[in-house]
Amino acid sequence: MRKRATTIYDIAQRAKVSVSTVSRVMNGHDRVHPELRARVQQAMDELRFRPNRVAQSLYHRRSNTIGCVLPDITNPYFAQLFLQLEVGASELGYTVILGNTTSNPDLEETYLRNFVERQVDGLLLLGGATNHPHPPEAQRQSLRELAEQLPIVAVNGDLPGIDILSSVSSDEAGGMGLVLDHLEARGHRQVALLGGHPEVTSSLEKLAVYRERHPDAPAEWVQFSGLTIDAGGAALQRLLDAPGRPTALVCINDLVAAGVLNAAQSRGFRVPQDFSVVGFDDVFLTQVTSPPLTSVNHNYRELARQAMTALTLGMEGGQPERVIRVPTFLAERQSVSEPQR
């Protein structure tokens, strides 16, 4: 037979205190004598009592949960960032519920509605509408209404004109500058940009920095082919078929860079002897590619810490800075050398 669940009456009897004292201890009230608090805690331990979190959330009108929406958990960039956000939330006593939208706006809308119904305390939005230069007006209106109900932090994205708490982002433009500075210091003046998507703000931001630094680069040296490994291979193919040959290739992310490295090897090219390659995001792939890949790191732990700090401040009624930028840094490996020609 199933064992009867322990109740606060059992705890009160074991600790020889009133039920109201047990209730005050469980709900974190300060006005409980330390000796009584210790007796209640000991009784809870002896009886292996675990508080009913649903009941507590109803009492405090807090669920101690945070909703997190992102487009693709199989992408190592989002997986790495989500991991740090989840660790940071756990340290603060929150549980994170993930909504993986598979880049489907309708599914994103469904997750957001479900999170409101679940009464999460706040939302973290990664990618999707927050990383789109011109989200549809219907989607913007839905997000406006959502921001009136819940504290929202956009991580590595933003929703201009919508009253979210904060946009907490790594300095991707600064990271692109670090890459180009590094290549220039190694003697590279002919640099191409591979990968990216015209409807992703981070791609456009990196492109703007590249155009500023290399205004005379041939049009063929910019290949906005996408964000995947296959996109990297396709971009390199088109680049090699075009006139002229850069000495360094900057990739929009590490997946594109991995595709470039694979395609280069299959065509008999050597990296970095024939051309240098740099990625962006510094995911785990960078350490297992051949050669190991120089890449820009988003400073994930600090990015997650700043995002969680902003969100918890907002959930407690405070007002964080509307825009927070976290410095990136360059992780140097063996995919860059001086030009050999």
UniProtKB/TrEMBL annotation:
<keyword id="KW-0238">DNA-binding</keyword>
<dbReference type="InterPro" id="IPR010982">
    <property type="entry name" value="Lambda_DNA-bd_dom_sf"/>
</dbReference>
<dbReference type="InterPro" id="IPR046335">
    <property type="entry name" value="LacI/GalR-like_sensor"/>
</dbReference>
<dbReference type="InterPro" id="IPR028082">
    <property type="entry name" value="Peripla_BP_I"/>
</dbReference>
<dbReference type="InterPro" id="IPR000843">
    <property type="entry name" value="HTH_LacI"/>
</dbReference>
<keyword id="KW-0678">Repressor</keyword>
<dbReference type="GO" id="GO:0003677">
    <property type="term" value="F:DNA binding"/>
</dbReference>
<feature type="domain" description="HTH lacI-type">
    <location>
        <begin position="6"/>
        <end position="60"/>
    </location>
</feature>
<keyword id="KW-0804">Transcription</keyword>
<keyword id="KW-0805">Transcription regulation</keyword>
<protein>
    <submittedName>
        <fullName>LacI family DNA-binding transcriptional regulator</fullName>
    </submittedName>
</protein>
<dbReference type="Pfam" id="PF13377">
    <property type="entry name" value="Peripla_BP_3"/>
</dbReference>
<dbReference type="Pfam" id="PF00356">
    <property type="entry name" value="LacI"/>
</dbReference>
